[in-house]
Amino acid sequence: MAISEGDRGWERARSRLLDRVEIAVREANRAVLRERIPELSEAAFMRLAVTVARLRGEYLAEAMRFGHDRMGRVTPAETERLAHARRAFDEAVSAFEALERAISRGYIDISEAEFGHTPF
Fold first, then answer.
1. pLDDT band at 42 (very low <50, low <70, confident <90, very high)
2. Which residue from 3, 12, 17, 76 has the least number of CB within 10 angstroms?
């Protein structure tokens, strides 16, 4: 017999289902991501953060050069360089945010090895 919204226990049944789904999603993500990223160190995570910062710098520097030599007129090559820098930055930001989200949701653990030097 199916439980419907008007029945007693419907809310409890829905809550239990959602809890089981959440556990299954976490376990699936942990298993799949452990295969692809067997160990994520703090240093590796920071290197990715630095890479994102450098790509941001390259994108913004390219933007500041955009049309600079011809008083606002831009060439197709300048447009392509700026677009390439933006795509690289956007992709790196998306990857960093996805990794950060996976860590915060408990899909990936970070080993706590100490930094031997700053990642910059």
1. very high
2. 76
Domain containing 10 equals 1-36
Statement to judge: residues 72 and 82 lie in one domain: yes
Contact 85, 62 (CB under 8 A): yes
List the structure tokens of 24.
């299954």
Record the pTM.
0.77
Q: Is 56:89 a contact under the CB 8 Å cutoff?
A: yes
Backbone angles phi, psi at 109, to 5 degrees: -100, 150
With beta carbons less than 8 A apart as the criterion, state whether 34 and 111 touch. no
Contact 50, 119 (CB under 8 A): yes
Q: Are residues 16 and 61 in the same domain?
A: no
Tell me the pLDDT tens digit for each residue of 79-92.
Answer: 999 999 999 999 99
Residues 93 and 49: their CA atoms lie apart, in Å, by 9
